[in-house]
Amino acid sequence: MNEIRHMNEAKVVAINTNEVELLFTRAIENVRSDMRDNTYINEAVRVLAVGGYRSSIGSFWNAVVDDLRNKIMFRSLEMFNKEMTLRREIKSYEDFQNYVNDDELIEGAYKIGVIGYEASKILKHAKETRHFFSGHPGSSEPSMIKVLSVMEDCIKYVLNDEYPSKIIDIDDYLEIMNTESYDRNEIAIENALFDLPKRYKVELSNRIFSSYLLPNASTILKSNIEFCAPLLWKVLAKEDKLQIVRGLDQIITAGQKQKIDAAFDFVEIVNGNEYLSRFSKEYIIKPVLDEYVENLGTFSKENECARKLLQYSSFIPQEILETYVKVITKSFIGFIGSSYYHARTDFYADGAALIIPDMFKKFDDTASEHFVHYIKSDRSIQRLIRTPSKLRRLRTLGEILLERISSNFENKELLLLLADEDKEGEFLESLNR
């Protein structure tokens, strides 16, 4: 019986040549069907049959390089050129041969999504193995196990992997978005956008944002952007979201109100308000807050202002936080009055009253301190809450804040008194201390 004797951890292992042939055959069977007749793989099979392990490693690696080049060309040569700093622009298969080395090929394939991170690392190791054994005739003879290891890595990460999807052309994609034939299928859009390289996602996001601000943008385009943008936003990195949203500062400074309004609409559509700069937050929030203050008692205006402020309630700038806390507290408490049409004396804006508790649920210790300072220092609110119905409304807000404040909150005792119905007298007395 013919045997191959292989050294492994100081032990001599005898392997039947038929078993070796079977192992190689099984490995080759995992190559995807359209690569089975590849010239380099056929050459590897021929030299394997006569024990040419060194040559087979080289041939298998050549098959990997060939497959990666074709996959990159299929996915997007334009994106490959954008991602890589090369000696010249790559326009053809021959350009890969002349101007792209193996490390650049692997790196570029990873950056445009032809292979994954793990594959890029394994392939760089396989490349070094190939260069050592196939590129240096004086090196030791590679073992059968070494050959199998290289083959399996090449097959698993490249030769068995199907072609990637084509990368969409941004100009073509925006043209389609400007037509009624744009396919508003969430699954299809998410799959297409998730598969894009980082640079492409950023470029497409900025182009969509810019298109949305155009004064002559069609209603069809804006509607399709409003559908697509939130899906694209999900796959953007935080720093890229910041870059887009912080662009509002320059737009505001330029003073074109139509663009400013459209920019804020876009940010709201993608739920990106948290990335607004302090300048942009003040620009959009302060006028609403001023309108709220001026129109306390006009319930329709209170309702409108509360709705506008709700979306910004998690990130009110410190410069206007005190005013914000006062006005929404006043709005929620309301006032005592009389009416020819209603028997009630307890008045407040119903719409705002439904929204304000959610705004209080976004309070931190600083906002809560402003609340405590307000009810301790403002005589009008102190007189108002001596009415039981108004004290009950204030208690609702206090109970919310007890769930929000930290364990080190300085005025926690006051909130505990406010929340305890049996200690109303103590609470009211504490306001005068």
What report would you give on this structure?
The protein has 433 residues and is mainly α. It has helices spanning 17-29, 39-49, 53-83, 93-99, 102-111, 117-135, 144-159, 170-177, 186-194, 198-213, 219-234, 238-245, 248-254, 257-269, 278-294, 299-310, 318-333, 350-360, 365-377, 379-384, 388-402, 412-419, 424-430, and strands at 3-8, 11-16, 335-336, 346-347. The strands form two sheets. The chain has a two-stranded antiparallel sheet. The protein has a two-stranded antiparallel sheet with strand order 3-4. A hairpin with a 2-residue loop joins strand 1 and strand 2 (11-16). Helix 3 (53-83) packs across helix 6 and helix 10 (198-213) packs antiparallel against helix 11 (219-234). The radius of gyration is 34 Å and the shape is elongated.
**DSSP strand (E) fraction?**
under 5%
Intertermini distance: 102 Å
Tell me the radius of gyration.
34 Å
Number of DSSP strand runs: 4
How many DSSP H or I helices?
23
Classify the helix fraction into a percent range: 55-70%
Q: Main traits of this protein?
A:
433 residues, mainly alpha, two-stranded antiparallel ribbon, two-stranded antiparallel sheet, 23 helices, 4% strand
Tell me briefly what this model is.
With 433 residues, the chain is mainly α. It has 23 helices and 4 strands.
Question: What is the secondary structure topology, with strand pairs?
Answer:
Elements: E1 3-8, E2 11-16, H1 17-29, H2 39-49, H3 53-83, H4 93-99, H5 102-111, H6 117-135, H7 144-159, H8 170-177, H9 186-194, H10 198-213, H11 219-234, H12 238-245, H13 248-254, H14 257-269, H15 278-294, H16 299-310, H17 318-333, E3 335-336, E4 346-347, H18 350-360, H19 365-377, H20 379-384, H21 388-402, H22 412-419, H23 424-430
Antiparallel strand pairs: 1-2, 3-4
